[in-house]
Amino acid sequence: MFRALFHDARTWRYVVDAISTLVDEGLFKATEEGLRLRAMDPSHVAMIDFEMPRDAFDEYECEGEAKIGVNFDEMKKIMRRGRSGDSLELIHDADKKRLILRFRGKSVRTFSIPLLELEEEELPEPTIEFKGLAIVTAKALNEAIKDIAITSDYVKIQMTPDALILTASGESGEVKVEFTRESEALLDLDASEEISATYTLSYLQDVLKVVGAADTVKLQFSTNMPIRLDFNLPGGGRFTYFLAPRIETE
Amino acid sequence: MKYLRLCEFYEKIERTSSRIDMTNLLVSLFKETPPDLIDKVVYLTQGKICPDFVGLEFGIAEKMAMRALVYAYGKPLRDVEELFKKLGDLGKVAEKLSSMKKQMTLFVAKELTVSQVFSTLEKIAKTSGEGAQDQKIKLLSGLLTSAKPKEARYLLRTVTGRLRLGIADMTILDALAMAFAGGKGNRPIVERAYNLCSDLGEVARVAAKEGLEGLRKFTVRVGRPIRPMLAQRLSSAREVLSKLGGVAACEWKYDGERAQMHKKGDQVWIFSRRLENITDQYPDVQEYIRENILADEAIVEGEIVAINPDTEEFLPFQELMHRRRKYDIEKAMKEYPVKVFLFDALYVDGQDLTSKPYPERRKILEQIVRETDRFCLSQMIISNDVEEIERFFEQAIEAGCEGLVMKSIRSDSIYQAGARGWLWIKLKRSYQSKMAEPIDVVIVGGFAGKGKRAGTYGALLCAVYNPDRGVFETICKVGSGFTDADLQTLPNILEPYKVDRKPKDVDSKLEPDVWFEPAKVIEIIGDELTLSPVHTCAWGVIKKDAGIAVRFPRFTGRWRDDKGPYDATTTSEIVEMYRMQLKKIETE
To answer: Number of folded domains in chain B?
Structure first.
């Protein structure tokens, strides 16, 4: 049995929105430690590792382990009905094979969706040695990606000991967004050497749907290697995203 | 087994045009394949995932396949389209894109296995309903991300139905015989198994696991289509008769869809000549089978023919295409009703009839069928008389049939599943006379209408004028082409000309419900002019004991009130038209 109450329904709205861009269906796993989901897109280009620890919830009850398979399109529609000030109650009804989603605010609104019987996929975490790390505000990264999207479908991300630089060029022109040590939006930067890699923009645009729920993002990558983005969520929640690079060889 | 290994065989098979090389390659492929996978390998090699009668298709059009490529390789659609224009083969496009792939994946892809590819392809085929397109695209692109360039080539060709390795069923049977059944000499045993189950995958599995012994155990099963017996073709009744030993069962060869109908209690299956499951296209036929086959279990064969419900005339085969749709079958059923003509029984209540001679099968068929207006036995005569057969033939042609199928009635006239032998011989026309222009005919009789046409006429007996004899000679019965308004006014228009008996100047072998004084002239057109044992126009002129008739006649809508009966088209004009347009039919 699993039941939990989270103080801000909107956090879940953004999380579910971002997940739904990657996979149609997925399996939340509830344990005594908290709620987890790991999912990879069918083409194996990107992966989400989401975790909301038990302490992040106002109330949390879980005996043993509950596997909650959901269709994210359905769940997304419901989560979008969450209003400002609503808290969210999640209940796993194993008997009726339902996930109950209850908004508690000015009124109590209860939705339920059928649980899907999904096989659990074994998804290991990619093992990558990162050569650079930067922390920026979630908002600033979102804006930077919107700037890039004007010109190109791909973004080149570079890190030097002094700056995080996003560039792109396309038929219509070029764009460059710099976060230097002086930039207010850059909270931390650690790169011993210059590194760069190119990523498909649409994946980043999709995952950035989660920024509504996060304050900051930690970027980690190496030259021509996958990038790891860690969005910190309220209450100690974690939304980690891995994206494989594009390699320009010709 | 790795999918790449299969692709390597595909590549070698593609490079050879020699059937012997192809067979040898298949033998090595089959021997190398684990027995548990052999059916899958056989299906995949044919570009399928199951036998045709299961009716499972990938449902991936070129556009969709291109979207999967966009998804898998991160290229814009216009680039993919451009490449397709240049290479003309989506397989090559996929191969190219795969080899210049820029988007990396998070994990090093595992090598594709045959069973993984097969089960994903099966999922693709089974995905239906809302959102199916996207789901299929995702499944395909998921495979592509793990595929090496060569694998990508064959995957794309497979899902778009363009694998085309040029391997005939018979080549696979040869290879199976050589690989598992003790050599090519045992091909007939392998082939027999195939003819009875129509499933190469099943034959391969049994051959690989149980060898010759297993193959010998194959029997007819209700619900599983049997490969149909086919007919040879000759162009004269005399030749056919001598080939069949002087006497034959002659059946009308209806211009419809050949159907193998299976019944097991309330369960019914209908398979096409190509063994596709067409049960859903014919809810009406399903009902006829349930109600009128008086056996618990049966496999019978017949021809489904489209008919004009108002006149009961046969319609050309093309009309059945209206049934080839998934939606609104109920509507199509009403608008395009069909009639079934049964001609064979292959299995009845536990008894395999395929090794019984034709007369016995036909007798059993007659015993288990309750004939109705819409479900009956094929027109058949047993004859040793060339002239009688020719008359029967002309009658068939005029009724809209293609000719006759003449069948041996000797003791060895078994049902040769899957074979085109000399026990059945088609007799089709070698000449036809296309009708290029309409003719003006005189109404001399009427047939009472039924159903929607109750109270008016279902068809009119029409004649041309023969000035030499001073008589009107019948040329057709026309029931098509009349609008509802035409039909309503017909009785009124014709009432004044009604007479009690056949007018003296009308020469007719048919007896209509009502006779008319030759007076009203209408314009009609048909598909062709054909010899007829029924109509008297130009009797004996072209051929002894035959006249000329219009095949598939229809009213053009023009009442020729400007013409009197003696101004109608004349017999000699018809003879001239017949001769002018007579052309040899290209044999198919």
So the answer is: 3
